Amino acid sequence: MIESHLPAYIALTFVLFSVLIPAFGLWRSELSHPIAVLGGGIAAGFSLFGFIDVINDGSIRYFFGGWEPPVGIEFVYDGLSAFFVLVINVVAFFVLIHSHHISKREFPGKEMPYYSLAMLMMLGFNGMIMTGDLFNLYVFLEIASLAGYALIAIGDRPAPYAAFRYLIIGTAGGTLYLLGVGFMYTVTGTLNIIDMAAMLPMLYESNAVFAALILMIVGIGVKAALFPMHGWLPDSYTYASSSSTALIAPIGTKVAAYILFRIILWLFGIEITDAVAPISYFVGVLACIGILYGSIMAIAQSEMKRMLAYSSISQIGYIIMGLSLANPWGFAGALLHVLNHAIMKACLFMISGQLRLKEGHSDISRFDDGYRKKYPWTMAYFTIAAISMIGLPPLAGFFSKWYLALGTIDNSNWLFLAVILISSLLNAVYFFRVLEKVYMMDPSKGQKEPTDAKRDEASASMLWPTGILAVSLIVIGFANAVIVGVLLDIFPM
Amino acid sequence: MLDFFFGHYAYWFVIILLCIGAYGILFKKNLIKKTIGLAILQISVVLYFVSIASKWDATVTVMDPDIPLDQVANYLNPLPHTLMLTAIVVGVATLGVAFTLLIAIYNRYETLDEEELIDKIQ
After folding, report:
1. Which of A247, A402, A449, B84 has its Cβ near the most Cβ atoms within 10 Å?
2. How many CA atoms lie within 13 Å of A6's alpha carbon, on the beta-carbon side?
3. pTM
4. pLDDT in tens, B10-36
5. Interface of A with B (CB under 8 A)
6. DSSP structure class, residue A263
7. For chain B, which domains are there?
């Protein structure tokens, strides 16, 4: 019984808690954090339960009010959406636990609106993933984006300007997506994704469909920070408060990438996508440029959050590249990379937040070898996440790149393979630079131990979520064959 | 040829609005003007949806005893209009957030000119 209503429960949990937090937060401000964690935990539990259910019993289609599509609207909870919902809700749960001390320090007294907005943003993201209707997708996109703009605007002094730039670019992207939906509606007369996908083979090589595809890819590409549309990302992630960044960075661009998966592989199908022009190859080339650009720019940064932001641009490129390959290995590699990158980026941004809390800055040039004495566990988790980011076995990051590489070999696409290899080396440059600062003795200081380094580890509510995410990278690395087996079943062709 | 222009005048109007909006977003230096450009861009898409639902010699979608249901083509398609009610609300909310951010920017930097703002941030 509960299974058939599960998609609605996940969305309603976030609606309920976005209202409960102000209700209790006005009474006792310190209650808002535990309530938000409870909400995130319930949603994560539902999505875990739902994922197992979908794997065992097949997908769930939830019709609102009992109206069957194309008249009614629906939530489609199939393998792909169950996987993404699971990833984002579990990661968000850990980030919410972690944000307790940071929110108290960085925006004291404003915890209640912060957590309420975070719940609304998660509602938007979950809705975008589960909805089976192109127009509802636009509405959920705007819910998530509006909450996201507000969350980014909480932070350093330039944060509102970064948020404003994101708002202008992001809303323009959303509007282009809506125009694309309008084109699709005029040629098919439906907004339901499954219904529309059944009609599209009759519209092979239609100009309107081609234009709609381009508009949708550009519009969603802005949200995914696909290469030429990435301009909003570095400033937003750098200036936003550490807990906002840790919440948005691992989740936001992944959800946009999910929409690209849904549009290109499910709605249009790879044949119609490539019917007029080789769109998928073109998107893949953009992703490649993004990978190299993000990695090179990350090397040039000295601020840790800005470095991680540029690295996000590069990592989203891997996911989109796996999509553009459109073969099972590339698909599985891309989805595995969604999981890995969400965990790695959440872990790394949480650590940058911890360092900002303890040191007051996260400037890599001012890191020294005292850090490994002061923060032994934090730095150990940083090392695990960084090595996974570079892609050394047996950590999780290696396997997603491995499957992506298998996908490129399957398509004999040597350009993409070369990009994966080069960018792994570039990743090594910018992460080993940090590890060198922390773990190697500074030769100019001679052999003496730093005197002021006393153990000053972050509190347990921050250390545990980071630790669990870091350890899960090792677990995913060893369990990769199982996960990829599940992911290959999701592949639509 | 002329028919191509005058026969589709609603769409040409939408295209012109879209271009004005995009021009405002891309080239105006004042952040308020950028926001206005964004509003024009959104409204152009709203007008596109409204114009695709228009139909000559058709009536509103309220059951009329003179037009039985087997002549369903004599009724308008209400869906694009209802969709646009939601899109207009989304647009208003976006403008609200945009102006809130502009107030925050102005309180911190006392300017809304993009070049001055970038100078002050660096």
Report:
1. A247
2. 27
3. 0.93
4. 888 999 999 999 999 999 899 999 999
5. 135, 138-139, 142, 146, 149-150, 153, 157-158, 160-161, 163-164, 167-168, 171-172, 175, 178-179, 182, 185-186
6. I
7. 2-121 (1.10.287.3510)
